[in-house]
Design a protein that fits this description.
Dinitrogenase reductase, Ribosyl_crysJ1, single chain, 264 residues, mainly alpha
Length: 264
Amino acid sequence: MIGAIIGDIAGSDYEFNPVSTYDFELFPSDSSFTDDSILTVAVGAALLEAGSDEAALAEALIDAFHRYGAKYPTPKGAYGGSFSEWLRSGKREPYNSWGNGSAMRVSAVIDYARSLEEAEDLARITASVTHNHEEGIKGAQATAAAGYLARTGSPAAEIREYISRAYGYDLTRTCASLRAAGYGFEDSCQKTVPESLIAFLEADDFESAIRNTIYLRGDADTMGAITGAVAEQFFEVPQRFVDHARETVPEEFLKVIDAIEARR
C-alpha cells in the first residue's frame, strides 16, 4: 500500500499542472495525499474488518468509503464527480463507472491475497461496489494481478504477457511513444491502467517507475498510485520515500497500512 500512497503524493501537484521535464521535483512542498490514498486505506480497512467473504466485504467497503469520505470530505484534488455525488447521496448502489478510481484504490488487495485468483476476485469486489462497469472492474483486476505477480517473483516479461493476455491491454507501447502521440489527462481505466503499467514495466527502480508515469502528463496522482502499487512489489522502495509518506498521512492510515502489509 505504501507504494501507491507514495505515488499519489508525488503526483498530487501535477494532476492539473503537468510536468515539463523528467527531472521534476518529486515531492514539492505543496504535495500531499489525495482521495487516492484515502480510498486506498478505506479498502484496506474493509478487508481487515470483513475478510474475503464477498457479501460481508461489499458491505464493509461501502461503509468504509462513506466513513472515510465523511471524515476527509475535501482532499487535495477532490473526489471524482460521480463518486462525490455517491457520497453526498448516501447511496449504497454502484453507478456503473469505468473511471480509474477502482484501480487506484486496489493496492491493499495485492498484499492481502494468497493467490492470483484471490487477488483478481477481491479486486472485482472492491471495484464493483461503485465501479461495476466491466472496464472499471477490469482495471482494478489488472492492477491487482500485476502487483500480485510482482509480489510473488514473476519477471517483468511474464507480467506483461499475463496482463496482455488476460485483460487485452496493449502493453507493447512505450512511454516515449505515448508522449509522442500526445498522451494527456484521461480518467478512464482503459486509458490509464495500461499506461501506468507500461511506466512500471519500463522502470529500472521504484523512483524511475514513479517518474515514468508522472512524466506521461496524465492523471498524475492516480497513475502514480497505480504504478506505485505494482512497483512497490517489484523494486526496493527507498526508505526516504517511505518516511516521507508516513510523515504525510494521518496516524490512522498507518495503522491500516501496517496491518495489511504485515500479511505480505
